[in-house]
C-alpha cells in the first residue's frame, strides 16, 4: 500500500480563473491521470475551474507533469499516488483528500491496463491484473467515496469503459469483460444513488490515439482504424470534452448511460 501526495497550486492561488467557470469550487479525482485520456480529462476539468486530484500508480513524474500543465494555465491540481486495485490504499487516498478538502464532487475512474491475448493462451495472472485494475479499481473508489456523495446529496461519477466492453473484441477477453463489467457497475450504482441527485455514467471510447494504442503492432492499428466508420482514430480531447460535460450541471438529468465516443464503431 502506498500513498504519496504532492501539493501544487498556481502562484496566484488560481485567482485569475474566470468567475463563470462551471466547475469552480468543485474537487475532482481522476484516476490514472498522468498521461493519455486521464491527463486530457484532468486538464479539461481544471479548465472548467475544478481542483483536480491527479491520481497515478507507476508514473509519478508524468503525474507531476499533468499538475504543472494545469498550473501553467492558472488551474489547481495535486498529484496523489495510489494503486486503484488496492482496496485499502483507495480508502486511505479518499480519507486523505476528504481530510484536506472536506468534499469530492467528481470521480472519474479512468485507470486502465491491457494484457491482450487469445483466451486459450491467456494467463490467470493477466486476467486478474486487468479485472483488478479496470473493474475492481472503479469499485474501490466508488465504494469509499459514495458515502460522502450520499451525505452531500450530489456528485458525478464517470467510468471510462470501452467500445470493447460494448461489442467484445477478439484477443481482449479480459479487457472486454472488465469494461462490460464497468457498464453493469455504472447502471447499478446509478440506480442506487439517483434519488440523492448523484449521476453515474460510462463513457465508452473507441480507438483513441494514446500510449495504450501506440503499443499495438502497426498491422493491428491499421485494422482498428479500418473498422472506424469515420476513418480515423479519436483524440484524447474527444473523450475529455464528453467527460467534462458529464461532470458539469448541464448533464444533471443524465444517469445510468453509456455514451460511446468511437467515430461510429458501435
Ligand atoms: P494509457 O495511456 O495506457 O494510460 C493508462 C493510465 O492508467 C495511466 O495513467 C496509468 O498510470 C493508469 N493506471 C494503470 N494501472 C493503474 C493502477 N493500478 N492504479 C492507478 N492508475 C493506474 O491509456 P489510455 O489510452 O489513456 O486509457 C485510459 C482509459 O481509457 C483506460 O481505462 C482505457 O482502458 C480506456 N480506453 C482507452 C482506449 C484507447 O483507445 N486508448 C479506448 C477505450 C478505452 P501509471 O502509469 O501511473 O500506472
Q: How many helices in DSSP terms?
A: 9
What value does the Rg take, in angstroms? 18 Å
Q: Report the sheet-strand fraction.
A: 15-25%
Percent helix, as a range, is 40-55%
The average pLDDT score comes to 94
The helix/strand order is EEHEHEHEHEHHEHHHE
Q: Count all strands and give the number.
A: 8
Query: How would a textbook summarize the main sheet?
Result: 8 strands, mixed
In short:
This protein is an alpha/beta fold and 266 residues long. It has helices at residues 36-47, 60-72, 87-101, 124-152, 163-167, 173-193, 211-214, 218-226, 236-247, and strands spanning 4-8, 27-30, 51-56, 76-81, 106-109, 155-160, 198-205, 258-261.
Please give the structural blueprint.
Layout: E1 4-8, E2 27-30, H1 36-47, E3 51-56, H2 60-72, E4 76-81, H3 87-101, E5 106-109, H4 124-152, E6 155-160, H5 163-167, H6 173-193, E7 198-205, H7 211-214, H8 218-226, H9 236-247, E8 258-261
Parallel strand pairs: 2-3, 2-5, 3-4, 5-6, 6-7, 7-8
Antiparallel strand pairs: 1-4
Helix pairs in contact: 1-2, 1-9, 3-4, 4-6
Bound molecules: NADP nicotinamide-adenine-dinucleotide phosphate.
Word description of this protein:
With 266 residues, this protein is an alpha/beta fold. Helices cover 45% and strands 16% of the residues. It has an 8-stranded mixed β-sheet, with helices on both faces. Strand 5, helix 4 and strand 6 form a beta-alpha-beta unit. Helix 1 packs parallel to helix 2 and helix 1 crosses helix 9. The N terminus is likely disordered. It binds NADP nicotinamide-adenine-dinucleotide phosphate (NAP).
Amino acid at each position: 500500500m502506498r500513498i504519496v501526495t504532492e501539493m501544487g497550486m498556481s502562484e496566484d492561488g488560481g485567482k485569475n480563473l474566470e468567475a463563470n467557470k462551471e466547475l469552480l469550487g468543485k474537487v475532482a479525482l481522476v484516476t490514472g491521470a498522468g498521461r493519455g485520456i486521464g491527463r486530457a480529462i484532468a486538464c479539461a476539468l481544471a479548465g472548467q475551474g475544478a481542483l483536480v486530484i491527479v491520481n497515478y500508480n507507476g508514473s509519478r513524474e508524468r503525474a507531476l507533469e499533468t499538475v504543472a500543465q494545469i498550473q501553467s494555465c492558472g488551474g489547481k491540481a495535486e498529484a496523489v499516488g495510489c494503486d486503484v486495485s488496492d482496496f485499502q490504499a483507495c480508502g486511505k487516498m479518499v480519507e486523505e483528500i476528504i481530510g484536506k478538502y472536506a468534499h469530492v464532487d467528481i470521480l472519474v475512474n479512468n485507470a486502465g491496463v491491457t494484457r491482450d491475448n487469445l483466451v486459450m493462451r491467456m494467463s490467470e495472472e493477466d486476467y486478474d491484473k486487468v479485472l483488478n485494475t479496470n473493474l475492481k479499481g472503479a469499485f474501490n473508489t466508488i465504494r469509499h467515496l459514495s458515502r460522502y456523495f450520499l451525505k452531500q446529496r450530489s456528485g458525478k461519477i464517470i467510468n471510462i469503459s470501452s467500445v470493447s466492453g460494448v461489442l467484445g473484441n477478439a484477443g481482449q477477453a479480459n479487457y472486454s469483460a472488465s469494461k462490460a463489467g464497468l457498464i453493469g457497475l455504472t447502471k447499478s450504482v446509478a440506480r442506487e444513488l439517483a434519488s440523492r441527485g448523484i449521476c453515474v455514467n460510462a463513457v465508452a471510447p473507441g480507438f483513441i490515439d494514446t500510449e495504450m494504442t501506440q503499443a499495438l503492432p502497426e498491422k493491428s492499428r491499421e485494422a482498428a482504424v479500418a473498422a472506424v466508420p469515420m476513418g480515423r482514430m479519436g483524440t484524447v480531447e474527444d473523450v475529455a470534452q464528453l467527460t467534462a460535460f458529464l461532470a458539469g450541471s448541464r448533464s444533471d438529468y443524465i444517469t445510468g448511460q453509456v455514451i460511446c465516443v468511437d467515430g461510429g464503431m458501435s
